[in-house]
Design a protein that fits this description.
The chain is of the alpha/beta class and 354 residues long. Helices cover 44% and strands 14% of the residues. The chain contains 11 helices and 9 strands. The strands form 2 sheets. The protein has a 7-stranded mixed β-sheet, with helices on both faces. The protein has a two-stranded parallel sheet with strand order 8-9. Helix 2 packs antiparallel against helix 3 and helix 7 packs parallel to helix 9. About 10% of the residues have low confidence. This is SGNH hydrolase-type esterase domain-containing protein. Keywords: Signal.
Amino acid sequence: MNSKYSIIVILIFTILFVKLNKAFSGNLSKNQRLLLRCKRRCANKNNNRYLKRFCKKCLSLDMLDKNKNSENNEISYNNIFSENKNSSLILLSNSTKFDYNKIENLIVFGDSHSAVSTNYTDMTYTGWNHSYGKNWPLHLINFHNMKLWNYAKGGSVIDEKLVITPSYFKIDLKKQCKYFYENMSKRKKFYKEWNKNNSLFAIWIGNIDIYCKKKVPNEIDEITNSLFKSINKLYNVGARNILLLSILNGGCILKRDMNLNNYILKFNDNIVKKSEQFFKEHPNTNIIIYDTFNKLKDIYSNCYKYNFKDCTNFWVKNKQNNLEDYLWSDSHLSDHANRILAEDINNLLNSINN
């Protein structure tokens, strides 16, 4: 009799537990439910190397205490930490699903770190860049099949009215966006080639802005405000999936310039804060911030781990050596380094789907 009673009690508590668990899961954001499923899948030990790799990525999503949700559960995000300890911020919309498998167009804005010598009239490009091979957009479209629309231009700043640059650099992000509107906005030549769901807008700019400014601390807010004005205009013509790359710390690593390091950190911190604010105001966007800063720092600190032999000198000054051994081709990242960035970005974007 006692054993039957015990079984009944256990069954009752089991049913209650299942119901409570279901109710709890129902109130969680999409990202939190993903994490719970991930934990269940990875709870048991398994020697499968693919599962181990998946779990290492997936369990790093465990930042539930930092999730933010609006009252209608429209706004939620996770900080995702990759294997190499570089922190990237993911802001996912509940109304506009980010599906990397359906991304067919990579639309790029930026400076010489991203430029591929584009003809803005027909959007063809030679592919020439400072890596002396392929830079990150060219590698990324190899990792994930996409058509590249590259508006980046060497020497570009965010707003030329805010930053004085040499006269031959007469293009900025605002002009790049202008070329985009003229080519790809409604009723323009390439308008039917893309839509809000199958396109990823990638922006990596700000390096020259920080390097060229003299009174940087007082002007970074103004520069990042201008950046997000341009992003807002892109949003108005359909940008819903936005990838931002934080700016490099190459100068402060090589020169050991702590002031420059602090300026870069402030700029990157502003990007995060502005992205969160933009996301709150536009909850139908997906914003991904890739942490280039800490990725490069990790590569520099673990040069041989990444199969480099020289992470300090420029290859152009040592052309008798193998370019593949160098982190820097000149003042830009080498083909090898760009491939590492592109693969890491590709893994991050794939992890959102997984």
